[in-house]
Amino acid sequence: MNSPKGSFPHLHISIASQSLTLIGAGGESLCQFPVSTALNGPGEQNSSGCTPRGRHYVRAMVGGGQPQGTVFVGRRPTGEIYTPELAARYPERDWILSRILWLCGCESGINRGPGVDSFRRFIYIHGTPDTEPMGKPRSHGCIRMRNTDVIRLFDLVSPGIAVTIEES
User: Fold this and answer.
1) Which domain holds residue 94?
2) Is there a domain that residue 8 lies in?
3) Number of structural domains the chain divides into
4) Taking all residues of the chain, what is their mean pLDDT, rounded to a whole number?
5) Global model pTM greater than 0.90
6) Any idea what the CATH number is for the domain that residue 41 is in?
7) What residues act catalytically?
8) Which helix (H) or strand (E) holds 1?
9) I need a labelling partner for 168 at 20 to 30 A (CA). Which of 8, 40, 42, 84 fits?
């Protein structure tokens, strides 16, 4: 989890380029996906609506085997599959779809601990409706991905994989 880059596979999220890259053990880019980070920009404070920076790891993975478009509330499938009609019925929902990779901070006082804890803030990498733009900050703090992309990523990684979120 706190390993140096290049020694183990890890994820790198760039807020500037709105991208997530899976880096292999040799430091090579294995795949890259467009993402959408927080509309409020980077930041670690509770209730800020910002995407936290720094070193994290995937503490839990939720949704394996669920159909694409599965709707989650509180990390549990609701039994619904996202549709435009469902969205029209619940326009206030922040849709968390298909898969969840729940992040935990590694840096005490920065993204772990009182007032700044990424895990307690429920910071995820998760699927979002295809109508939501990628490459533009629009989330409430999480890292949003296309459903097909988050399912692919979910199948490529395991709990414990290191994640670095940087502004550059």
Assistant:
1) 36-159
2) no
3) 1
4) 95
5) yes
6) 2.40.440
7) 126, 142
8) none
9) 8
